[in-house]
Amino acid sequence: MTQISETAKEKLRSQFPVFQEAARAFYAKELAPGKYKGTSGKFGSYGERGANSSMLRLRFSGGAISQAHMAFLAQAIDKYHITLAHFTTGEALQLHHLQEQEVLGLYQDCFEAGIYCAGAGGDNPRNITASPLHGVEPGEPFDMTPVIRAAANFVISLIPELKLPRKYKISFSNGIDNEGHATFKDLGFVARPGGTFDVYAGFGVNGSRFGVLIDSQVDPRELSRYILGYARDVYMKYGDYEHRGTARSRFILTKMGEDAFRTAVRDAVRKAREEGIPQLELEPIPA
User: Fold this and answer.
1) What SS3 class is residue 199?
2) Is 191 helix (H, G, I), strand (E, B) or coil?
3) Within 10 A of 102 (CB to CB), how many other CB atoms are there?
4) Comparing 108-112, 129-133, 149-153, 200-204, which segment has the lowest mean pLDDT?
5) How confident is the model at residue 2 (pLDDT cuts 50, 70, 90)?
């Protein structure tokens, strides 16, 4: 199961009353769907068409669901009478047609089970994606699973602190065929022989080119510095908060040019390292 620090969990838990009040107002028809989306998105929930129900998006890093979480989901589907589940292109799971007490209760049950919905929508770090067969695909340089899990824990802990201009998408590819799409995300990591990663940044949806190669053969423990550094000192610093249509990473890259953009990302990583931002703690996969 995904584990995050107790401090991070308490920060996330303390925000729940905001979601609770927004849901109450939405279902009471006191809050317009567009206004509700502005609040509910950060909790991984959106109102559905007709504004009479909503969905909840559950984060499963790299698209992997543990046996324990599968058992939880089976019970939750029965408990909340789920009639529609949807696996997203972001390797998350959406549960649909929820009423007020169902969406709030399911959110809390998921949280206590170690499944996080926070940040699964809105202008937040979204669910980390990865090559679908990572860990079992023949020929891959190494199993990325411990790195993906550690990166996901780190990302979830950042959600209460970041005020991003748009969604922040991070992905891992296992170096075989780039099924993780790491070279066209805001930030992407491609596995290389020797247990290292190439780091790409600066792409986004509907762009016309790949992200820029920032660094090669990066120690996986260092990826926390890239994740936070890019978010805070590139995306938040240079992102367009006034115009949502031009707020994504690719516009920063286009405006700055490749050389300046690469320098900005490296400077951001260096700053995070000098500040003592912790490295990722990689736990071995149980046999």
Assistant:
1) strand
2) strand
3) 18
4) 200-204
5) very low
Given a cut of 60, whether residue 158 has pLDDT beyond it is yes
Task: Give residue 207's pLDDT.
Answer: 54
User: Which residue, among 270, 178, 170, 267, has the nearest Cα to 227 in the 3D structure?
Assistant: 170
DSSP annotation of 119: T
Which amino acid is residue 68, in one-letter code? A
DSSP 59: -
Q: Which two tokens stand for residue 262?
A: 């690469």
User: How many helical (H) and strand (E) elements, i.e. helices and strands, does the chain have?
Assistant: 10, 9
Give yes or no for a contact between 88 and 123, defined as CB atoms under 8 angstroms apart. Answer: no
Token representation of residue 159: 């959600």
Tell me: pLDDT of 147 over 50: yes
- Model confidence over 177-211: pLDDT tens digits? 888 899 989 999 999 999 999 999 998 655 556 88
What span, in angstroms and rounded, lies between the C-alpha atoms of 33 and 124? 19
Give me the helix-helix angle, 100-112 and 16-27, nearest 10°: 160
- What would the two tokens of residue 7 be? 């401090």
User: What's at 92, amino acid-wise?
Assistant: A
pLDDT mean across residues, the chain? 94
Please, is 180 exposed, middle or buried when counting C-beta atoms within 10 Å of its C-beta (0-12, 13-18, 19+)?
A: buried
Residue 125: partners with Cβ closer than 8 Å, 6 or more residues away:
119, 155, 158, 159, 162, 164, 167, 168, 170, 227, 231
